[in-house]
Amino acid sequence: MKTILVLHTGGTIAMSADAAGNVTPGAENPLDQYQSSFGADIQLETEDVFNIPSPHVTPTEMLRLKQRIDKAAHEGVDGVVITHGTDTLEETAYFLDLTLPNELAVVVTGAMRSANEIGSDGLHNLETAIQTASSPDAADKGVLVVMNDEIHSARYVTKTHTTNVATFRTPTFGPIGLVAKQGVVFFETLLRSTVCPIQTVTDNVFLIKAYAGMGPELFDAIAQPSTHGVVIEALGAGNLPPATLPAVQKLLDMNIPVVLVSRCFNGIAQDVYAYEGGGVQLKRMGVIFCQGLNGQKARIKLLVGVSAGMSADELARFVATANS
Question: Are strands 205-209 and 15-17 parallel, antiparallel or unpaired?
């Protein structure tokens, strides 16, 4: 028999729609009434860690989850399932992927339809997440996201649709496994994983998206002593409008790490173009190119590295590639 710890945090999976169709949290989490269909094969231990919409989740709540899972690793459980709102689910999942060792299978899931809506996907996603967490093949895969019968790596998965139940996708690579009638099937595994255990989280790590005609104003606004890092979703392969360059240089001169990813849905940021504002110039300036992560994931990785007290060189190596 497997013991799975289920940690509820709120989100649509724990909400209900009223007569007008408005979806809100209730005084009680409807998942607390869940009755397992796994019989004697799986024993569930359930906790409500908090009950908040995912836009209310901050790195502080992510750290609380990490610390609870650290504790669970010494309590004899075989896996952990986290229910979470979908808006920031990928960020919490990736934070845990960066900060937890692969001692336990950790699976994050949620729902796109509330508990009392027609076609609610919450209970099905919860059951497939539990099924995945109990699989002997899940423990060495990093943190997983299970939605709509697909198993994704927390490192690359992202929310791609505002309301569709098939919203969670992994651009370029696809899911690493499936939950089928016959059980859990994995097709891929991560190349490698670096664990960065932290005990506190740093604030004021910002994310900025580049656009045509962008000037220095946003960069100037965050050029403060309290700023601990900046991630830029750059244009194309990794380029910025020329008017931003003096402000980016100012951040670098203040020893504020500046990380660059592409705002494109697929592909990686690269120092390809040598014109003014192109990737070649940005890399020479000292901007860190992060390959394979979207903006919100790169921000989480930068935040974790800064929270760990990494030196500038250590931080650059840590953030530069998703495959670490």
Answer: unpaired
